[in-house]
Amino acid sequence: MEASSADIERFVGRYSLGRDGTPLNTMGSLHFLRVKVPGGLITCTNFRQIAELAAKYSKQQAEITDRQDIQLHWIGAEDALDIFSAMAELGFTTDMCGQSFAGARYGDVRNIVSCPVSGIERDEILNSYPLVKALSNFFIGNPEFLDLPRKFKISVSGCGSDCTRARIDDLAFVAVKKGDEVGYTLLVGGSAGVSLPGPRLAKSTGVFVMPEDVFDVAVAAVEIFRDHGNRESKAKARFKWLIEEWGVMKFLKMLQEKVGRSFVRYDGPIFVRQGEHEGVQWQAREGYYYVNVPLTGGRLTSRDMILISELAEKYGSSELRLTPTQSIIIPNVKEKDALLRRLEMKFTFNGPKLRWNSLACSSDFCGKTCSPHAKELLKEIVEYLEKRFDSKVLDEADLRIYVNGCLNNCCASMFAEIGLNSKQVRDGNEIEQTYDLFLGGGFGLEATFGRLIEEKVLSSQLKHKIESLLNSYLKNRLSSESLRSFCNRHTLEELKAYLNTSGG
Amino acid sequence: MSRKDGKFQARRIDEKRFELDVRGLTCPYPQLIVTRTLNSLCSDDILEVILDNPPSARDIPPVLEAMGHKISRVSRPDGSTWKIVVQTKNQ
């Protein structure tokens, strides 16, 4: 399509392409398209239509991201307007991908993450999806919010667990109960990336926000970031810098002034339960289940997408939920066994939770790793551990593995029980792919940073080291102790010894 | 070119010389606007493209060369801005 002014006018601010990276990107892709799916909720019809775009433009491949987007690579700039036109008809937009600009400019509100089973989860505190949809509709393409100092990440969890990984968002709403009332508490200033002041867990504000006030609070918070965030330095332009500079109390004071009301204090727990969205789960509605299809790294083919759509139409309600752990949920299923029989021909359901809740970034397309790239490495390690340990044991360890290709830390490797972060070592003319190994991090009831235990571990050794660690854990763990607790009550030297594969 | 007038047009700065400012636009728009503009110019016209999106600065010169246009110069007047000078191919 020849780019007319009218076309460009129509698409600017709602659609863009992201840059696939250099120098090690051997995938032959210059651009990616990150399709926003607010809250991860998508109809089968739309999912199939995006599969058709993947078939036509991105070598039949797609990725589910940890912000519930669908990402397509190999997008040619010359095809972009045709793709944007198709997406406009479907009602979808993309991230603005303004991070390439040199200055602290052109940041946008990224896809708003929600509990993937909003509205169907048993014992849910609040259905967060309508709020996510309303906020998305407000921010997408809104010219007042397309030139933030940097990107801005929002999540809303209504189920009472940390399924949204709230602690690494700029602004996170988590449903809580205060006496007989239900509402949200607010966390601010999280980010896993290396930008200043470094990785930060979002801070609790200790306030209780009524559901009807959340929209205004979210908009006011983004306005504060837009108007007061640092625009002098890109490295200091994320919201976490402002929160660190101001402190939570100054931010809250301005937030209350902007929304014109005082917040009630909330001192209760932030998360009231562990997330249990993996595998097959009962729904709130009697006799119905949701089935979480594990993708382990989030990649799938357009044929997989069409298969999942067809099965969700046959066994579910023609709707899908993309999860913040790079998988896909088929909700509203009555005949779960029949559905599972069909899915098991293609996907592995009898594995540990690790298969559902581990993450890896697209480092092969970013050009930040050589083989094994993050997603390959994750699959290799998970499959290796499945062969050596019973799923029950791995589930008792309550273990996640996050693999990152660079310090941007898209997958937040230091917040997993086992985190791997790429570090390349030059050996003569060769580049050797190694990973730094972090242990003991985690989200949820008590979020913790993992500790860097070993640097520059050869990728071929990682699965053996993790096996060795798990054997030591099984031998020495306290009753019902998780791997995270186990790691955090041992010294760095002890953990190094546990990782030692020589049997010492 | 002005984003405010909504037209994304090149500005004539000399008889056969034009300037196109695509600052503030991310991929794919700079590339699309530049190619569209070149298609509307005459043979051997010169187009000076000013942009600030690093991926576009990386991608546009090889794309234009593949189309037969001549890249006369790529410069970086400051840390965040690029200027690409293109001579239009014989149409």
Residue-averaged pLDDT of chain A, rounded? 95
Radius of gyration of chain B: 12 Å
Cα distance, first to last residue of chain A?
Answer: 65 Å
- CATH structural fold name of chain B: Translation Initiation Factor IF3
Please give the CATH class of the largest domain in chain A. Alpha Beta
Q: What is the assigned CATH homologous superfamily of chain B?
A: TusA-like domain
Largest interface: A-B, 27 and 26 residues
* Terminus-to-terminus distance of chain B: 23 Å
Share of helix of chain A, binned: 25-40%
Strand order of the largest sheet of chain A: 6-7-8-9-10-11
The proportion of residues in beta strands of chain B is 25-35%
Radius of gyration of chain A, in Å, reads 22 Å
Quaternary state of the chains: heterodimer
Shape, per Cα inertia axes of chain B = globular
Tell me what the CATH architecture of the largest domain in chain A is. Answer: 2-Layer Sandwich
The number of domains of chain B is 1
Sheet with the most strands of chain B?
A: 5 strands, mixed
Q: How are the strands ordered across the major sheet of chain B?
A: 1-2-3-5-4
Strand fraction of chain A equals: 15-25%
Please supply descriptive tags for the structure shown above.
heterodimer; A: 504 residues; alpha+beta; Sulfite Reductase Hemoprotein, domain 1; six-stranded mixed sheet; five-stranded antiparallel sheet; globular; B: 91 residues; Translation Initiation Factor IF3; five-stranded mixed sheet; 27% helix; disordered N terminus
